[in-house]
Structures are given as C-alpha cells and as structure tokens.
Design goal:
Chain B: This is SCP domain-containing protein. The complex is a heterodimer of chains A (86) and B (330). In chain A, 87% of the residues lie in helices and 0% in strands. The longest helix of chain A has 27 residues. Classes of the chains: A mainly alpha (86), B alpha/beta (330).
Chain lengths: 86, 330
C-alpha cells in the first residue's frame, strides 16, 4: 500500500515538474506565437502520455481511460490554439 | 388528491432503487454530477461531451477566420500605441544597455509611414513588398543617405510597451534595437484593415546618416513629435465627426488612418480569450463538482484522475488569461 502511495507521489511530482517547466517556457516565449503553438502541442502530448503511463503502472489502463486522456489532451490544445491562432 | 402514506412512499423508493438505471436517465442533476451507480462522471463530462466541446471550439475558430472575409473590419485588434511611448521605451532599453539614445528623425518617420501605408495598400506583411520594394527604398526615397539602416515591424499589439518587449524577446529585432551602429530612428503607427482584420501596424526604421552633422537635433525631434500629436488629434477629430452622406468621404472609406482609430466592433483577442475561458471554465467547474461530490459520497469511479485534469485545466485557463498576449513581430 505504501509502495503504491510512493509511486503516486513520484508520478504526480513528474506531472507538477512538467507543468512548471512548460509554464516557464510559456512565459519566456509569450510573444512568439509559433513557439507557443508548438509548446501547446508538446504539453498536450506530454499530458496524454503521463495519463497513459500512470494508469498502466497502476494496472488499470482501459480503452475508456486512454480515450479520456486523449480527448482531454485535445481539449487543452484547442483551448490554447483558439487564442494563439489569432 | 391522494396523499402517500409513509409505507407506500418507502415502497416506491425501494422500487426505484431496484431499477437505478431507468431512473438515472431522468435525473437531470447527473448531467452535472457523477453517476453513483454507473461509477462514471457527469454526462456533460463524458468523452462524447468533451468531443462536442472540441468541435464547438473548432467551429468558433473557423467563424473568426471566415467572418473577416465576408465582413472586413468587424473583427480586429484594439490598441493604444503611440510614437512617443515607442521612442521612450526604445531609448529606455538602450540606456539600460549603456547605449546612446536615438533621435527621432523626420525623414525616417516619413519613410516608416510610407512603408506602413504600402503594406495596407498592397495587403502584405513582409520586409520586402510583393513588387520587390525593399525597406531601404522607402528610406532612400526620403533622401536619407545612410551608412547603416534597419527595420523592425510589429502588428496586432495592444500597447507600446508590449511592442518593445516583443522586439526585445526576438534576437534579430533586439540586435537592431540595441545596435551602436544607429544614431536615429523613425516610427509609424498606422491603423487599417489587413486581411479583413482591423489592426495597427508599427514600423520602426533605424539609421546612421552618412554625414554625421545631419543627425537630428533636439529641436527636430520635438517638431516630429508635435507633428505626430497634431496628426493623431486630427485623425481623432475626423473620426468623431459624422460623415455627410453623398460626400466623397462618406462613399470612400480610407484603407488606413494614422492612430488613433475606431476600435473594431469585436476585439478578436478578447473574443478568443473569452471563448477559451468559457469552455475551460465550464469543464473545470464540472470537474471541481465531480471531486467534491465523489469525496462527499465516497465514490470510486472507473475513470482517469479528475484532480490531474482539473489542475492542468486551471493552469491552461490562467495562462490564456494572464500570459498570452496578442501581437506578431517581423
């Protein structure tokens, strides 16, 4: 049980670190829309990958959960792309 | 009117509990809250619902792209940019780097205005025009004989500070801004319709005259700034006056005007940010309700991690609202 909880902390720490790095990059390149669109794609892909790996390690990755991370990843990308495209 | 006795009522509730799925369909609340029996999220958070939101966002983005082609000038970028502020911020950046301040030159200013007006007239956004005219042609056209010259362009920005900050973030533009090869500068801030969007173009020309004695004096700089404020005030007054029907002014609307100009009917930056914030906020609120309701009822659903989705969504909406700024430099 403790091992599972430790793994959870490690995985969430990875997600937090990714989010922090991407936020910093977003701020640094805030005037370069080309780079920001690329970063949005990378962030969405990274989140989908994190979700899939996290659930696979937990042993509860199903098609439904995989689809859920994919649609949330696409939503995140579109939220950013709608603003960056103009 | 019949009144249910306590026993009858408890029987009905018992029957309902035996057929939870059929009842669930009619429970409107589960569009917003998780389904305890099915152990899934709210209907409006299902994968299918998220796909619908994505499609809706694509549709809205498509409308924002298509609308300017049908009704030019309705969508645009509201801005508050002035030559005086651009000069102040540019020289402040040079001063921070230990460089001399640049003097505002009337010939470079006229050349910058010609360049901006040419871009609106021929509808291009580039250093070299479609007919091959280079930035230097505009400068030489004003009889400005130079040893060094440079050009920075910007469009769709909200403020003068944003324009200079964006140039400073781009290595090639920063190189121009902080070059010790230049003594003088000229700016143009011109409003108009570019590719259907009402926008503001900023042209910045740098130069060092071949004859050092020709470097603009403080008096010349003041004259250029005064001319600039007179021109801006004249445009502002002209826009306030209602155009008389039948006059050429009423029939022919100019393609471009010196700033300030009317604000577009819809500011595309605010509109797109609002669309993203509304969709993101709606999904985020449902996710927050999901976390609260599931904890309260002790539900364990067969889904991904709601807290992770919520965290990422909050970060994205905050970035959209507080970090992303409009504007492109060239």
């Amino acid at each position: 049980m403790k091992e599972k909880s430790d793994l959870h902390i490690v995985e969430y720490s990875v997600l937090l670190t990714l989010a922090f790095i991407i936020s910093l990059l977003f701020y640094y390149f805030r005037y370069n829309h080309g780079v920001l669109i690329f970063l949005s794609g990378v962030s969405s892909f990274a989140y989908i990958l994190w979700g899939l790996i996290h659930h696979a390690l937990e042993g509860r990755l199903t098609k439904f959960i995989a689809a859920e991370y994919v649609v949330f990843g696409v939503l995140i990308f579109l939220l950013l792309y709608t603003v960056l495209n103009f | 009117m019949s009144v249910l006795t306590g026993k009858k009522k408890s029987n009905i509730i018992k029957d309902w509990r035996q057929q939870p799925k059929s009842i669930e369909k009619f429970q409107f609340i589960h569009h917003f809250l998780p389904h305890p029996e099915e152990k899934t999220r709210a209907t409006l958070l299902s994968n299918r619902a998220i796909i619908v939101y994505c499609a809706a966002m694509l549709l809205i983005a498509g409308i924002f792209r298509f609308l300017p082609k049908v009704v030019p000038g309705v969508l645009g970028y509201a801005s508050d940019i002035s030559v005086k502020d651009l000069l102040t911020y540019t020289n402040a950046k040079r001063k921070e780097s230990g460089l001399s301040e640049l003097r505002l030159n009337s010939a470079l200013t006229s050349a910058a205005y010609q360049k901006a007006e040419d871009m609106f007239k021929d509808q291009y956004w580039a250093h070299i025009s479609p007919d091959g005219t280079e930035p230097w042609d505009f400068i030489l056209g004003q009889n400005y004989d130079y040893i060094y010259a440079g050009e920075n362009l910007a469009k769709n920005f909200k403020s003068s500070k944003d324009v200079v900050e964006a140039w400073m973030k781009s290595p090639s533009h920063k190189e121009n801004l902080l070059s010790s090869n230049y003594d003088e500068i000229g700016f143009a801030v011109v409003n108009g319709v570019m590719e259907g969007y009402e926008t503001t173009l900023v042209v910045q020309f740098f130069g060092r005259p071949r004859n050092a004695a020709q470097v603009a004096s403080v008096y010349e700089e003041q004259t250029v700034l005064e001319k600039e404020s007179t021109r801006t005030a004249a445009v502002s007054e002209r826009e306030k006056e209602p155009a008389t029907e039948g006059t050429s002014e009423a029939v022919q609307k100019p393609v471009y005007t010196q700033a300030p100009s009317e604000k577009p009917a819809i500011d595309v930056t605010t509109a797109t940010k609002t669309v993203s914030a509304v969709f993101g906020g709606f999904v985020g609120t449902l996710l927050a309700l999901d976390v609260w309701y599931s904890r309260r009822k002790g539900l364990h659903k067969f889904t991904g991690h709601t807290v992770a989705h919520l965290g990422i969504l909050i970060l994205v909406v905050a970035s959209i609202w507080f970090v992303l700024a409009p504007g492109i430099v060239l």
